[in-house]
Every structure is written in C-alpha cells, then in structure tokens.
Design a protein that fits this description.
Shape: elongated
Number of helices: 2
Strand content: under 5%
Distance between the termini: 13 Å
Number of domains: 1
C-alpha cells in the first residue's frame, strides 16, 4: 500500500494538473513540488491522504464482508490481517 506521504504527493500533483485543465489559477507558492509546499498546505494534503486511505479501507472491509457472507466465512481473519 502506498504511504500517506505518497498519496498526499499524488493528490497535490493531481490538484495542480486538474486546476490548469479547468482554468483555475492556484497560488504561486503552491505551484511547487510537494516537498516544497508551505507547511500548512502540506499538512492539509496529508490529512486528505489519510481520508483517502480510510475510505479505501472501508471499501475493502465491505468487500470482505460480502465475500465472507457469500463464501461462508472463507475470508475470515484467519491470518491476523487487520482489515
């Protein structure tokens, strides 16, 4: 799984790219690589990355529940995975 930092960087890059596509002019101080963002901007992207991770985890848990119900518990947590 990608780290929170990797996801945050991808979110930042996508935000800048899509902003250009729709004609949205982002702040000059944000038109930089993720590592060079102002501290507060970087923190927001890291929070967004955590949100994305949590959303994906909830979806995975839902899928596992559906599979467990369909296949009579075949995907129960037999191996200690934390999902």
């Amino acid at each position: 799984m990608k780290s929170k930092e990797q996801i945050a960087e991808e979110l930042h890059n996508a935000y800048e790219e899509y902003s250009k596509k729709v004609g949205w002019n982002t702040q000059d101080k944000c038109k930089v690589k993720f590592k060079d963002l102002p501290k507060k901007n970087k923190e927001v992207m890291l929070y967004m990355a955590t949100l994305v991770q949590n959303m994906i985890l909830e979806e995975v848990r839902s899928i596992i529940k559906i599979l467990n119900d369909k296949y009579d518990g075949a995907f129960d947590n037999k191996y200690g995975y934390n999902y």
